[in-house]
Amino acid sequence: MVGDETWRIRRTVADLDRLGETESIFALGNGWVGWRGVLDEGAPCGMPGSYVNGFHERRELSYPEEGYAFPQASDTVVSAPNAALIRLWVDDEPLDLRTGTVRDHERVLDLRAGVLRRETEWISPAGRRVLVRSTRLVSLPRRPVAAVRYEVEPLDAPVELRVCSDLLANETVPESSDDPRAASVLTDPLTGEAYRADGLDGVLVHRTERSGQRVAVAVSHLVEAPDTVAVTGDGTPDRVRVTVAGRLHPGQRLRLTKFAAYECTTVDGTPVDELADLVMAEADAARADGFDALLVDQRAALDAAWQVADVQLDGDPELQQAVRFAMFHLIQAGRPDGDRTISAKGLTGNGYDGHVLWDTETYVLPVLTYLAPAVARSALSWRHAHLPQARERAAELRLTGATFPWRTIGGRECSGYWPAGTAALHVNADIADAVLRYLAATDDQRFLAEAGLELLVETARLWHGFGHWSDSGAFHLHGVTGPDEYAALVDDNLFTNLMARRNLRGAADAAERLSELAGRLGVDSAEVVGWRAAADAMFIPYDSGRGVHQQAAGFTEQPEWDFAATDEDDYPLLLHYPYLELYRKQVVKQADLVLAMQLDPGEFTADEKARNLAYYEARTVRDSSLSAAPQAVLAAEVGHLDLAYDLFAESVFQDLEDLGDKTADGLHLASLAGAWLALVQGFGGMRDDRGVLSFDPRLPGRLDRLAFNLRWRGDRLRVTLSPTEARYELPDASADVEVELWHHGEAPVTRPMPQVPDPGPEPPSPPGRRPTRRSAD
Amino acid sequence: MVGDETWRIRRTVADLDRLGETESIFALGNGWVGWRGVLDEGAPCGMPGSYVNGFHERRELSYPEEGYAFPQASDTVVSAPNAALIRLWVDDEPLDLRTGTVRDHERVLDLRAGVLRRETEWISPAGRRVLVRSTRLVSLPRRPVAAVRYEVEPLDAPVELRVCSDLLANETVPESSDDPRAASVLTDPLTGEAYRADGLDGVLVHRTERSGQRVAVAVSHLVEAPDTVAVTGDGTPDRVRVTVAGRLHPGQRLRLTKFAAYECTTVDGTPVDELADLVMAEADAARADGFDALLVDQRAALDAAWQVADVQLDGDPELQQAVRFAMFHLIQAGRPDGDRTISAKGLTGNGYDGHVLWDTETYVLPVLTYLAPAVARSALSWRHAHLPQARERAAELRLTGATFPWRTIGGRECSGYWPAGTAALHVNADIADAVLRYLAATDDQRFLAEAGLELLVETARLWHGFGHWSDSGAFHLHGVTGPDEYAALVDDNLFTNLMARRNLRGAADAAERLSELAGRLGVDSAEVVGWRAAADAMFIPYDSGRGVHQQAAGFTEQPEWDFAATDEDDYPLLLHYPYLELYRKQVVKQADLVLAMQLDPGEFTADEKARNLAYYEARTVRDSSLSAAPQAVLAAEVGHLDLAYDLFAESVFQDLEDLGDKTADGLHLASLAGAWLALVQGFGGMRDDRGVLSFDPRLPGRLDRLAFNLRWRGDRLRVTLSPTEARYELPDASADVEVELWHHGEAPVTRPMPQVPDPGPEPPSPPGRRPTRRSAD
């Protein structure tokens, strides 16, 4: 691989049999609009998808056996009208890569330009050779705007070309549910409210029937072609089409540029006509500025983003490319404006029904807090905006404070299996943790007053009401599910207890600091005392005989998993063993306790970390994409740098190599974010759990250099690690700025890299479940 | 109430607004055929139902979130064609108690005659007064046969009468599921395969589409009426109808007697024509013998049954009636021939989808083993016949031996909520317990060899493979659900552990006794040694601080339920609190540990029983009909006779007073059986857990006398308790028979009643949850 390729992702004709995966990898988005990387012509296609953040339908859920407070409906992401489609006919034969002869076909995702380029040389079944080029972007600086420039030219002989540019609602999607009621909701989910087709302009406005949402999409076209072509436009409630047709000779070129704009509101929000006017104006404005201007702005936005987000990693170009791919998708996933969050798949696919899970707060926001804090704030404001539903849910569950949903789009609980959904109360502490981290990194007092305090208070109330005191004076959280989904309904899950403690203390600190505001939330000093007492008495399950912490009370006394009797084909275990077996045995899906050591490192001694890692690594199978990153962080901290390196590679290659065979449903944003955490918290040794930044770096043998940036209270900190030294700089700061939070107030500073002490033999993974070895390549 | 009423259940016009409940109470059955007590004319009706034991359809199950080995389909009871219907038109106006004037209406279930009698005097809207009488029976001695004698006479003036006797398939039933797929399966579930209508005879043969079952029903009629009436017969695939019509004068009477016969097989069993011939012959034979002969035979069969089953209870005639009602339905529920079992509702309704649960082995068979051992054997043979499915299920669950379903009709697991279904593995030990009890009571060596040994061996294998050894050398069963459904997925549920221990030991004993046969099942001495070792090391969770056993490990350390904050309207709790709250707190639905003390009494000292009862009574709410009986048994044993009496009353009145508001779905056979257990094991103090009978009787203050019978190894033992003495007799035995198992080999024998020692204050129930006080009436 040449160096330059680290800024590109390339797929050729050979990848046409992995369309779904490629569509996710080539997805473009800006945190508001997302287009999957479907071919311009829309077919062949793995799964179409053009999303607006938060736009969804609701579908009923039914249970073979009902239970109190089981969610009766689930939010499900549905596609907004698709403006990316451009179909081509060559002498009346449709361009379809499954027909004719594909002489050349390549698509390139350009990570610096922020565009998807395509070049196809195709000979039609009748023998007409054409060259098709397209460039697609979803504008980072212009929230509603996406655009495609599409060019076609005949190569050998004159041909009749017809290019149809569609804006299409209710595209046919593969069935995603075996429940006929769900399928009926998700087939043609949009109801047309208005359409306009006026020459090169068009608008569709649709609503959903159950979730009460309205989406409007406008398209505006620019045609550059010989005079011989004719342009027509027409529309129906579900489609606006602009057709450009005519005879072209070799040397002549037809170029169609389409500018689209997306807006979404509720049906009782902006009226239909007004919304149609708005999107049309946005699309027209983009056309007026021109595609080249969009390209320039896109590049500028990305340059700014990369200045912070780029991670340089010398010694392994494949990994360098993969890391940039990961960071590109994180840049695309969120927005600094408004209060929208980032779902597990972002806007890259409909996996998990488009739901937001704890991944956002625990994997994605810890990265964005340091790279793009306004995006983290936006996502946390989204949680705050859904506090009313979380309070309602807590009341329904007969709990105190607020209970945020395990899975949702619109704010209500959508989990259909409560032992691994509603019972996973840690999501509330995860949100509080993300708030505390954001506040520590930004000192954003306005956010604290407007949203942060209330989030901390209401989640602290949950824990205080949920827990109970034992005779011995310890505070316990019983009957919850931690991050590990191979366990459920356990007592005193260590991760949950530690995170709840952080939550209680964070809320107490904030309430004391803003006592007047806290008072308006009903917090008095007695309540704060109660939170602190519960936090101080929080039970920490520990097996003194084995010298390891327990993932939950009694975990280490559960039966061991019989790895010797487990075949390679038996993984992932959840597809081959019942929960009955998984739950009661010492086998781990998500690296639960290891993640606790990552997020609350000060609660464990170095020896405990080493022993815990060894114990749990031997019991953690590679069945969740969420495990590798925290395992990498802890393996690096303990000194198992080869293992850490391989785990980091597993995290960053999750989608580029489709390790879980699920990339077609959308990218694993948590895993991609985890790659940054593995580098920065693992090899960089960065920690932030006490509201201060600290670094304890160590470089794996395969890397010659690792450089990354962080934002800290408005400044950019640049860290560069080599085998011999660690350099800390504030490249943008004036001379008198000091970052007193790291390395004794001196900045910039260069320090020698310490020798990593020999951590002893690498902890064994379960047989066959060690991450693929990359460290020794 | 006059004494005679204790043999009758009477409902009048006042009960017409509780039709569903009355239909269950008036259900007739013989363990093969069951007719709900719907009015002859079929309307008004709570829920129609005419069942054949085991006849069912299968419907798909779907889950919001799938899991490995979640059952994909569920058996559901569906009605066989209904032969009970007889409709009347009076001058072209249909008899319908909701119209015209009901001058008099009464139905009486005669518990000695085994018939349901009805007498209605009705004035039609046009003013015609008629008297209608009917007598209905489902023949106990003749398995396929049910019959109705229907009489109508004009009272004031001549009228045109038309009587239509229907045999009707696919009767309209109220929707039982909100799942449209289930509804579509259960609407018109029967497909006609053949029908015959030949004058007064008719047959319908139907099959189910998914479960592959075939049912055939024949009707044969006898008409006794003035010559002026005309008789016609006609049929369609779903209906055979015989119509008798003509003008009758006051003093004249029209009598129609219908004889029906039911058979059921699989679609690859008896061919359609052959089955049709068979049921027609059976119906014709019944008609040839005549209704009076059926009545005589019915009475004889019941006389024989009552000789053992009747319990005499002097001092509380309402309870005497209720006990007889309970015993009547137990007599009706099973059959001594074939291998059919008894579902939770018997053949009295479609509650629980008609499923068989652990209630059968743990509540119903302990009664039938002593009253009608052949019926118990039949039900256990049904389990044995489904061993192949239980072995398949164990393999699917990656467990050893056999895993019987939590809910089923056809033998496969139908539970749609695995934490309270599949995880309730104790059903396997419950089956083994029923086998051991049956063997101890009957010494039936043939059953042991043909079925019992294999049942014991395969269930023992389950426990041995499922459990694990702790470092301290104890054998544990983790991650199971015990009887209490307000807890789930617990470690070392005491009930399960004790029952599994009985299972392991019982299997070991049987395998050693029949070592050659056991060898053919693959049992060698090492396996038996393993079973004994596991049994001997079985962990018994005990809280030494509180001096009580733990329902499961850690139970007594769980948070307490806040009864002070629980309103009367919050019961049953499962409709007002999430499992999240119920599971982790000390609140009990089914009296789990108390049941363990009933079934394995030798494992607890008297003091432990008293302390355990007090501890768990305070935490057990009245949300399950399964709790009262074991609580009554233990309350009696401990000496709280008033509490025991009130609990007994709750158990026996469950349906007659519709305490759970569910009687319309069918009777609670476990609760009715529990009433006998409360009397015999509670006040009689009978115990059988060591394979020997023993009695420790004590009479509650409200009773002057309690007399009951038991079969023990072929003999009938009669026990009569008065405040002063207990008499034990073998009324049927020749003089030289000795029952050496009770009271030192002396039989008959009379003993003084001991003084019950003062047990101290009654253990408090949760506020408002004590059973209704009857003891002090």
Automatic annotation (TrEMBL), chains A, B:
Pfam families: Glyco_hydro_65C (PF03633), Glyco_hydro_65m (PF03632), Glyco_hydro_65N (PF03636). Substrate binds at W358, D359, K589, Q590. One of its GO terms (biological process) is carbohydrate metabolic process. Residues 686-746 form the Glycoside hydrolase family 65 C-terminal domain. The active site is at E485. Residues 743-777 are annotated as: Disordered. It comes from the Bacteria. Residues 754-769 have a biased composition (Pro residues). Keywords: Glycosidase, Hydrolase. Residues 324-676 form the Glycoside hydrolase family 65 central catalytic domain. Residues 14-262 form the Glycoside hydrolase family 65 N-terminal domain. InterPro entries: 6-hairpin_glycosidase_sf, 6hp_glycosidase-like_sf, Gal_mutarotase_sf_dom, GH65_N, Glyco_hydro_65_C, Glyco_hydro_65_M, Glyco_hydro_65_N, Malt_Pase/Glycosyl_Hdrlase. One of its GO terms (molecular function) is glycosyltransferase activity. Belongs to the glycosyl hydrolase 65 family. This is Glycoside hydrolase family 65 protein. The lineage of its organism: Bacteria, Bacillati, Actinomycetota, Actinomycetes, Micromonosporales.
